[in-house]
Amino acid sequence: MLRILFISFIVLSGYNSFANADTIAIKKHLKNITKTASYRNYENLKQLNAIANYIKSDFSKYSSNVSFQEYKVDGKIYKNVICSFGPEKGQRIIIGAHYDVCGDQEGADDNASGVVGLLELAQQLKGQKLNKRIDLIAYTLEEPPYFRTEHMGSYIHAKHLKDNKIDVLGMISIEMIGYFSDKANSQEYPLAAMAKVYGNKGDYITLVSTQEKGKFVKEFSDHFKQSKSIKTEEFNAPASLPGIDFSDHLNYWNFGYSAMMITDTSFYRNKNYHKKTDKMETLDIARMAKVIDGIYLALLKLTK
């Protein structure tokens, strides 16, 4: 009876501390994003826009504040998709993931996994009373040939924040969160000595930032680890270390924001990276769901 009363209190108060990302929904989203008529790269604009529309439609189930941020590259219109929760004028936390792929491949881990993370977070955040604004953003044009250029969707968004003097607490890039392995020697590193610290199994998620990570990154990382949703390691290293800045968070660093990446370490673990074998069938859906739960619980700590 006490347990029933406690759960009732949680539901009525709108505070879901028992996060539980929906693995069935995760599989559905992965299928809808990756098993498409053509590949969602910059050359297939029709397919890219179809995925943007899919993301916007799903976001709209959970928030009334959903929009496209459109911009032009080489005469074509590309779109970021933005979904907001919390006070309109509140200090913002940015959670982003890119929905485009590199070349002709499905891109399940890179980066449908991150986009599905955004969609699940939207479902979890619906109805929550927040004291800060959370913007979930699905970026376009993260992949080559636009990586590290001003045409990246995340560059466009970060510049908009800076130009408009919008108060941003920090940013999180969700970049490949679905591939795990319990096999020995399944995890590689940019420096061989790191294996002695972190082990040789790809059985954890990483929180990645520079050594000058800032207050937001420290607080989010502490809350994520305290959630104990999944085995977690932190990588705080110079941006020059290969892989540290290989995602959308780099543009927020460039504009002076505290930012980080959550990742399964990409090509240091997942050998399907940027290959046709990067398919949803290779992903660990259960552990992917636990990563999403950890993000959600950490965000609640930061916004309650």
Automatic annotation (TrEMBL):
Signal sequence residues: 1-21
A GO BP entry: proteolysis
Transmembrane segments: none
Entry keyword set: Signal
Coiled coil spans: none
Domain of life, per lineage: Bacteria
PROSITE patterns xrefs: EF_HAND_1
Pfam families: Peptidase_M28 (PF04389)
A molecular function GO annotation: metalloexopeptidase activity
Stretches assigned to the Peptidase M28 domain: 80-295
InterPro entries the record matches: EF_Hand_1_Ca_BS, M28_fam, Peptidase_M28
PANTHER family with a match to the protein in the record: METALLOPEPTIDASE M28 FAMILY MEMBER (PTHR12147), PEPTIDASE M28 DOMAIN-CONTAINING PROTEIN (PTHR12147:SF26)
Protein name in UniProt: Peptidase family M28
Organism encoding this protein: Pedobacter xixiisoli
